[in-house]
Amino acid sequence: MRRFIKGFLINLQFFTAIPIHLELPMDQQHLRKAVQAFPLLGLLQGVIYLSLFYVFQELTPFSHLASAFLLWLATIFLTGGIHLDGWMDASDAYFAYQDQEKRLEIMKDPRTGAFGVLSIIVLLSCRFLFIYESTLNVEYVTYIFIAGIPFLSKSVMGVLLLTVKSAKNEGLGSLFQSAAKPQVLWIYPVYLLGFLFLVILLNKEFLLVGLLILVAACCLYFCRRKAVKWFGGITGDVLGASVEGTELILWMTVWLLHYFVMV
Questions:
Q1: How much is the pLDDT for 124?
Q2: Residues 200-223 pLDDT 10s
Q3: Interacting residues of 158 by C-beta distance below 8 A, sequence separation 6+
Q4: Which of 25, 157, 213, 245 has a Cα at 20 to 30 A from 256?
Q5: Contact partners, residue 85, CB within 8 Å, separation at least 6
Q6: DSSP-assigned letters across all residues of the chain
Q7: Is residue 70's pLDDT more than 90?
Q8: Mean pLDDT of the chain
Q9: d(CA 183, CA 168)
Q10: Are 13 and 20 in contact (CB under 8 A)?
């Protein structure tokens, strides 16, 4: 249990802007536990998001626009922008329309190109639209969606990390991948079942949450195929782009549900 807690703290250090002023061990055993804790990291992020939104929406005089905007900002600043950086680098590499080797070189370039800038504008603009309109009529299930989206995206990240070959033998992705084997993912279905059980206890709209899980599974399938085809495997940037892309698709799904199902 102590190793698991330290692994979770490693995730907080690497993937969030939450200050963890500890020297944590980076051996294989602790990194393996960190990979197992990816979904819990996402769930913590989701709980923070829904708590902030509830406070802004229910306990302050802020307008809905202001509440949605602050939630949107929280999704950017809580992660420290680490996944957004991967999204921009992967976009620059993909839209260069070069071979895999050249794309990996482009991702290593610290400079951001025009496609990276354009892609981040599109991503963040769409996310704000989806957040704003999806929370116009807040229902109980809306808070579950807010918590569930980062939980599912971090689960996708963990599965990609351990089931897709690495495109290079360096970087953050390779560091975590070398420490764990796919067998450690056995705990992910346990998390998922626990999340579903909690949803069933708290809300009757578990079918909508089930649909969100299905969409996340489709995102996982897409990312697995395209990571190998476009980049020759996964890197830290590809994983970051997968997290951001998955969350965008999940927010879009919630947005569409509010239009066509939750009326």
A1: 97
A2: 887 667 888 999 999 999 999 999
A3: 35, 36, 38, 39, 185, 188
A4: 157
A5: 237, 240
A6: -HHHHHHHHHHHHHHS----------SHHHHHHHHHTHHHHHHHHHHHHHHHHHHHHHSS---HHHHHHHHHHHHHHTTTTHHHHHHHHHHHHHTTT--HHHHHHHHH-SS--HHHHHHHHHHHHHHHHHHHHHTSS--HHHHHHHHHHHHHHHHHHHHHHHHS-BSSS-SHHHHHHTT--GGGGGHHHHHHHHHHHHHHHH-S-HHHHHHHHHHHHHHHHHHHHHHHHHHSSB-HHHHHHHHHHHHHHHHHHHHHHHHHT--
A7: yes
A8: 91
A9: 22
A10: yes
Please state, in angstroms and rounded to a whole number, the distance separating the CA atoms of residues 90 and 97.
12
pLDDT given at position 204: 66
Question: In terms of Cα–Cα distance, which of 107, 227, 90, 235 is closest to 177?
Answer: 235
The partner residues of 166 in beta bridges, in order of sequence, read 234
Take residue 156 and report the two structure tokens written for it. 């996708």
Q: What is the pTM of this model?
A: 0.94
Examine the pLDDT at 106 and tell me if it is beyond 60: yes
List the structure tokens of 57. 């929406």
What is the tens place of the pLDDT at every residue in 36-63?
999 999 999 999 999 999 999 999 999 9
List the one residue out of 215, 58, 243, 66 whose CA is nearest residue 145.
Answer: 215
Residue type, 182: P
Distance CA 6, CA 247 (A): 26
